[in-house]
Amino acid sequence: MSRAAPEPKENMGKPEPRLEARLKVTGEARYASDEQVNNPAFAFLVTSPIARGTITSIDLDAAKAVPGVLEIFTHQNTGDLKTVKFGSSGGGATTSIQDFGPKIQHDGQIVAMVVADTLEQAREGAFKVKISYQAEHPSATFDSEGATTKAVTKTLPQAGDAPKGFESAAVQLEAAYSTPTQHHNPIELFTTTAVWNNDQVTIYEPSQFMYGLKNNAATKLGIHADNVHGISHFVGGAFGSKAQLTPRTGLVALAAKRLGRPVKLVATRDQGFTIATYRAETRHNIRIGAGKDGKIASFQHQGWEVTSRPDDYSVAGVEDSARMYGFGAVKTEVHTVHADRNTPGFMRSPPVVPYIYALESALDELAVKLNMDPVELRRVNDSMKDATGKEWSSRSLMKCYDQAAQAFGWSKRTPQPGSMRDGDWLIGWGCASAFYPTHIGAATARVQLNADGRATVQVAAHEIGTGVMTVVGQMAAERLGIPLDQVRVEVGDSKLPPVPVAGGSNQTASCCSVVMKACDALMARLNGNNAPETVGKAANGNALADRFSRLGVSMLEEYAEFIPPGAEPNALTGLITNPIKQLYAGTPTLVGGSKGKKLMYAMGAEFVEVRVHAQTREIRVPRLVGAFAAGHVMNPRTARSQLMGGMIWGVSSALHEATEIDKRNARYTNDNLADYHIPVNADVQDVDIILVPEIDHEVNPAGVKGMGELGNVGTAAAVANAVYHATGIRVRDLPLRLENLLV
Ligand code: MOS
After folding, report:
1. Rounded distance from Cα 622 to ligand 1 centre (Å)
2. Are 354 and 181 in contact (CB under 8 A)?
3. Label partner for 6 (CA 20 to 30 A): which of 124, 204, 252, 649?
């Protein structure tokens, strides 16, 4: 594996190491539950062992008798908590199931929380809480008795007469695919610590959305948002699971208020499977009608997604799958299937991961039918317009294919399944495309520059592992013309200027665009003109100090607001408060992707080598090559890390990950990292990332397309396609396991 930081190319920033790297590797980085608070009490959750029914009685005597137990919270004494609206498209709450009983709507629903002087006492108390239930038969998932199906009401892409196009096509492909439940499993668990000071509460909680945490917690507690202070300096993995308000937050804050003492909760790994969100299982039916030349005249994609009883959550990635190529006509529909489950939610690349898996698998099947190279099939259908006539702001898909194919050695592939072999190992080579919508949201920033050339940048952004501090610092250093080590970046605090949720891969684009604006305004003031001349250019000798002294100040500060083109003029207000409902909304308004006048996406091409053992059918993935184009790359080192992590996650989706559900009782059975399989080092060998230069001035002022959620899209299809090439066996249901390949 080539490990060196890549050289900067045209339109790429410097491969700076992370600003917080030293803190992280020395253990000095403070995650939310590491924050020191004075005399904390400790909380432990009790969760429901049934998925559907009613609490009939609660007996707390034994629990209360445990020494050190201070208080126990159940549905009987938490009625003060308000309901936060479920945020089906970001913001809001993770679920509308926010009560702790008496009604039970999913396995692992929080039913009580024991607070004690020590963690051990709280845990012992929790095990001694006796709750009786009237259980009803639950529906677990697809095909379960009692699960109900509903069509989604979002407008989905439709163009032309796709069914007719299918009927009259020379080559027809119809296939069904499925993806399983997956859980984020961030290494940092779901934690909340609440500390009150009179009417003000500080909440330490790992968060992808500081203003969502602040405003939604305020709504939950029925207090003014100014009285909530959220702190989340570092986040140990989130992937969509820490973007919205979970029921635990209000509960911990309420407990701290009642006890007049800080309360700290660290939920256990298994509780994390049910008190937060997950990627729902999906099913797909695809019909493609093509000419003998491979040109696709008709594309139809139907999707089904499991969700909870009350919440209409769906990712509906037909919005993406139906637009990615120049299809002649498209017809799409999506249904939600409601079962007795916790509400699913965003999980890394939510719409595209399952839907592009289906699309890119189907294209491989079509290539086989056409006896055409799968790269050529993508080339034939590459187009600067989708079926509805929308044009792309930029599209570098085939550049990615060409560079990745070259690096991979694709020209040496022999197409016949099973035709490439190394001793006992059947070799398969497969490829697939990666797509991710380019999102951007309204954001604000404050930048200060001192006469000594040191700067501070403040944004309420989220260091979820992506390297946002570093890229924001780089943008400021570049615009102010000072070295990066003279820039201090502050993030992870709701008292800092608001920015959107760190979701939908918008954070770099949104934060860099506003920081750029603030820096340029500051330089214009410093230089006494409107030209964004940099300090570097201005500061020959004592020029910088001279400029400050001429202005009679030792520090300049600029606050900027950035509303991306295409966003509502009040997008920023929506981030902070909801003016219509008079609630504290914390609603991120992201634009871009397929929502605007032009299609804006980051893209990539992924090539995979698999080796399937001829006798045991063991599947190995020795080689991954991905080439990606995502506009201006702020930092090729952090970009590469994101893409590499993404592709490894893609291998995980292909071969390892699935949350198993016991269909009899609608409970997750492998809710721990021993039984929930993820790749280890031995499962991943060579990962080669190629950054393809791309310039797109239409996406945003910084020219940045997001890429955090790009790398893991397409990998699972590429692996499945490679397994077909190795074995001649087409597995359409993920994860692919050796039992699928027994002959
Ligand atoms: Mo990502 S699933 O938008 O955090």
Report:
1. 28
2. no
3. 649
